[in-house]
Write a structure and sequence with these properties.
Blueprint: H1 2-5, H2 15-28, H3 53-72, H4 81-108, H5 112-123, H6 126-132, H7 138-155, H8 161-176, H9 185-197, H10 208-225, H11 228-231, H12 233-249, H13 266-279, H14 286-305, H15 309-329, H16 342-356, H17 361-390, H18 397-406, E1 413-415, H19 417-423, E2 439-443, H20 444-447, E3 468-470, E4 489-493, H21 494-500, H22 502-506
Parallel strand pairs: 1-2
Antiparallel strand pairs: 2-4, 3-4
Helix pairs in contact: 2-3, 3-4, 4-5, 4-7, 4-16, 5-16, 7-8, 8-9, 8-10, 9-10, 9-15, 13-15, 14-15, 14-16, 14-17
Length: about 500
């Protein structure tokens, strides 16, 4: 429900591409992703920067919207971009939310309490919620990762084990046809099958037939969804190669700095990745997120103790592999790329919480308080963030900053030129010069027009706690600080504002 409330969140850079590929495909009469908008000419005529599941989903949505428009509204104009995205976003939202169902089914066979907790962790995550509104592959890919996990979990001790493993290979194929990075789920499927037959691993016990079957099903699924790999191989290879080079080099300059790039090496990247996973992934409250991450370790241990080592090792290896892959092969840090790890972690947390319920009365009480607090605060945050998008009265920025300054009398604020002019008549005693301030406040619109003309010292979008802000909360601004959305007021500690160079560019004095 909160996803629908906040569905009209504004602009997302990918959506115009998916709209154009659907429109171009219908115009050409060939069901392959193509581009004919001159403003998108840099992408070429074909489009395989993403595999084709998102294109097909966008195409189906476009056709249904266009048909409805012609039949019921008697309109003979082409479907507009605004209508397309308002109708297509709920389709992506609904499909993404199926991840909760797959998580429930992956655990309900063994423990319904763990299943409910894992589902709640997944669907009440703010990070998952706002990404799910986008016409983009990431939350949909996470949903297929949850489906893959369900197939592995259901295969354990099942008389239909081989069928479930085949289904896991198909799920891995669809996930990879949604976003290329899911490709490692195929070897993970084969690895899981091997582990269930042999512990410790022995070459003679390698499941050759299962591996061949999985490979065939995976490739067939991928090719059916993305036939361009065969029909347009040069364009396909060129686009995939472009993305590989892009992610291993730079995302470009914004405000004169590379806001998304991490050039400190693999260990620095891994630390930032796990900072995000530990302090933002599960809850918007860093402490809650971190405590729940700790319970995932309990869940991993519990899987080992209940003779589910194959599943435990596979999940751990997948998480560690992707930590290595992103840290060593990419430079650009964009958190939506890591969203597919959430179902794996939610699965472990569900197991961990359930196991801790069986410990002492004190442990049971503390865990109950933790999970109820998380569900309550995460639910409230989803409602509050959705209302911040849909309710324009809540986004009167002048009123919001006035109230914030007035309600923090012991904190000293320095203001940008525009905010200083807005609040000058209020004579607030804790609005001071930058040299005396604790916090610097400025509007996003103060900075955004200067994106290509100024040079800050730094403006990172790689930490969970760089910014606080007042106004709409359609994204986590800490990780999307060049978001082309509605205006908001940013609050930055004065020492950080000086270090970044914000005060010299924006302050009144």
């Amino acid at each position: 429900m909160t996803g629908i409330i906040g569905i009209n969140f504004g602009y997302h850079w990918d959506e115009i591409i998916h709209y154009d590929t659907a429109k171009c495909s219908l115009k050409s009469g060939i069901i392959l992703p193509c581009i004919d908008d001159p403003e998108l000419a840099d992408f070429g005529k074909a489009y395989y920067n993403y595999p084709s599941f998102i294109f097909l989903l966008s195409l189906i949505s476009y056709v249904l919207c266009d048909t409805f428009q012609h039949i019921f509204l008697n309109s003979h104009t082409h479907l507009s971009f605004d209508i397309y995205r308002l109708v297509t976003r709920p389709v992506f939202l609904g499909l993404s939310c199926c991840s909760g169902l797959w998580l429930y089914l992956s655990l309900s066979k063994t423990n319904k309490v763990a299943a409910i907790i894992a589902t709640a962790i997944q669907l009440l995550s703010w990070e998952f919620a706002y990404h799910s509104r986008w016409i983009a592959p990431d939350a949909v890919m996470a949903q297929f990762c949850a489906l893959w996990l369900m197939a592995l979990a259901r295969s354990e001790n099942s008389v239909y084990r081989l069928r479930w493993l085949a289904f896991a290979a198909i799920a891995a194929g669809v996930a990879t046809a949604t976003k290329y990075t899911a490709g490692a789920l195929l070897p993970a499927t084969i690895f899981f099958s091997w582990l269930t037959k042999s512990q410790p691993l022995k070459i003679k016990n390698f499941p050759v037939k299962t591996a061949i079957t999985s490979l065939i099903l995976f490739l067939a699924t991928f090719i059916i969804i993305t036939p361009g790999v065969i029909l347009q191989p040069l364009e396909f290879i060129g686009d995939v190669r472009y993305e590989m080079i892009h992610y291993s080099s730079t995302d470009g300059l914004y405000y004169g700095v590379t806001v998304d790039d991490v050039h400190g090496g693999a260990l620095v990247f891994a630390a930032l990745l796990w900072e995000y996973i530990s302090f933002a992934f599960i809850s918007h409250i860093p402490l809650l997120s971190f405590l729940l991450m700790l319970t995932s370790l309990v869940g991993l241990t519990h899987l080992f103790r209940t003779k589910r080592q194959a599943l435990a090792i596979t999940i751990a290896v997948v998480i560690l592999f992707y930590t290595y892959y992103f840290s060593s092969k990419t430079v650009i840090f964009v958190v939506r790329n890591y969203l597919f790890l959430l179902p794996l972690i939610a699965f472990l947390i569900g197991n961990g919480i359930e196991q801790m319920f069986n410990h002492s009365r004190l442990t049971r009480f503390l865990v109950l308080i933790l999970i109820l607090t998380t569900i309550t605060l995460n639910s409230y945050n989803l409602i509050d963030s959705a209302l911040s998008i849909s309710n324009s009265k809540r986004n009167d920025l002048s009123f919001l900053i006035y109230q914030h300054i007035k309600s923090h009398p012991h904190e000293k604020f320095a203001l940008s030129k525009s905010l200083h002019n807005t609040l000058q008549s209020e004579k607030l005693p804790n609005v001071v010069k930058p040299t005396e301030a604790d916090t610097f406040a400025y509007r996003d619109e103060d900075l955004r027009p200067l994106m290509e003309t100024i040079k800050l010292n730094d403006y990172p979008s790689t930490h969970h706690n760089t910014f606080k802000w007042l106004g709409p909360r359609e994204v986590n601004y800490n990780y999307y600080n060049v978001w082309a959305g509605r205006d908001r007021i940013l609050l930055v500690p004065m020492k950080d504002a000086n270090r970044m160079g914000l005060t010299s560019v924006l302050s009144e004095n």
